[in-house]
Amino acid sequence: MKKVLALFATITAVTSTTWADQQLVDYCVKTGGEVVQEWTCPATGNLKSGETCKQTNSLGQVMYFNGCSAPEGKYKTLFFKACIIHDLCYHHEPTTNNKSKADCDNQFFTNMKKICKTTGVLNFECSLAAQTFYTAVVKGGEAAFNCSKENVQYPLDMDQLPLPSPTPIIVNQ
């Protein structure tokens, strides 16, 4: 895994943390959410920290997402919508639609590959980034998946996310 991450880091251009965080803030506010710095995991009671968007759906149910947690770089921006759907799946399954962690992870990978096909990004590089993000959640996402099992009606597909859709900005250095 370390070799894959090292290779990924050397072939991708890095954007600033400020832009990626600003993307979350802008999207959250423009879609009626509130940016919070902390929230409590309902299943464990553990306090989670870091910028997170708290949104309320049309049924009054609260949803949380933070977009792509890591790694920094242009793919954190490009895969933003796929990361939101993945966050929502992790936070509300298997209670809402009986999806497993593997179902959420596989949908994440499918969404990232879809993004790679519809952008002008180098396909090999984008595919490697998608594989790296996927491997990271498969190997390290168990605690996040087990955090919240609240039954909340959330968007199941990237096209169902509230507008405005965040426009990825790719910075090549």
Task: Write up what this structure looks like.
There is one protein chain. This protein is an alpha+beta fold and 173 residues long. The chain has one domain (2-160). It has helices spanning 2-11, 17-30, 74-78, 80-92, 101-118, 123-140, 142-145; strands at residues 34-40, 47-56, 62-65. A three-stranded antiparallel β-sheet has the order 1-2-3. Strand 2 (47-56) and strand 3 (62-65) form a beta hairpin. Helix 1 (2-11) runs antiparallel to helix 6 (123-140). The longest helix has 18 residues, at 101-118. The protein is globular, with a radius of gyration of 15 Å.
Which strand order spans the largest sheet, edge to edge or round the barrel? Answer: 1-2-3
Largest sheet: 3 strands, antiparallel
- Mean pLDDT across residues: 81
Shape: globular
Structural domain tally: 1
